[in-house]
Amino acid sequence: MKKHPSYFFPFPIFHILPILLLTPFLLLASARTISQETMAARIAPDILRFHVLAESNSPKDQSLKLGVRDILLSHIQTHAPKNATKPQLAHWILQQKNTLTQTAESWLTSQGSPAPVSLTLTKDYFPTKTYGEASFPCGVYDAVRITIGNGKGRNWWCVLYPSLCLTDSSAKTVPESSKKELAEHMAPDDYETIFNEPPKVEIRFRLLELLTPKKD
């Protein structure tokens, strides 16, 4: 009688099955990220982000980060030229670099936590972020980066131009003037995506958790 060949699987099936199930979702997530980054590349020329990096992740340094955020945003919104374009605003901020950093350093000293503060105009990669009712795709944007000390802590960011810096986490409404500014510079489809696309919900795959063996 002819014997059928036997096959040897080097890995148990329960190790391979989660990978097979997860692969389509990873491909879908990758495609979505590419789509968002492509959109970000289209809208980034008209966006200026504001990025504050804390000294560390300690509760005190994180609180100081928010204080620096508030004092600098207040100064910019009060003293920046009215109706400035993105290039004009960026140019003004660089002109005011010493004033802005000294203002932040003086405030930190008044709080008993003196630290150097730096300001640079840079390009940073930002994850997808929602500001009130607007959701901006992940990608590379121009940003005003404020670094407190070594800047090793969690950061905070917003859209400085057009003005979408909602410091109140409960704020839900984007100023109409900012919406108008965005609408004037964006393709209609991109504008609709930012303001009308429903937020994405993170899904945990319970089946994969059950099939994946737990480590001791």
Explain what the structure shows.
It is a single chain. This protein is α+β, with helices and mostly antiparallel strands and 216 residues long. Helix content is 47%, strand content 18%. The protein contains seven helices and six strands; from the N terminus they run αβαααβββββααα. The protein has helices at 13-43, 59-79, 86-95, 97-110, 176-185, 188-196, 206-211; strands at 48-53, 117-126, 129-131, 134-136, 139-148, 155-161. The strands form two sheets. Strands 2-5-1-6 form a four-stranded mixed beta sheet. The longest helix has 31 residues, at 13-43. It is globular, with a radius of gyration of 23 Å. Mean pLDDT is 81; it is low at 25-29 and 199-216.
Distance between the termini: 47 Å
Shape: globular
**Count of helical regions:** 7
Largest sheet: 4 strands, mixed
- Which structural category do the helix and sheet elements fall into? alpha+beta
Short summary:
By secondary structure, the chain is an alpha+beta fold. Helix content is 47%, strand content 18%. Helix 2 crosses helix 4.
What are the salient characteristics of this protein?
216 residues; four-stranded mixed beta sheet; alpha+beta; single chain; two-stranded antiparallel ribbon; 6 strands; 7 helices; disordered C terminus
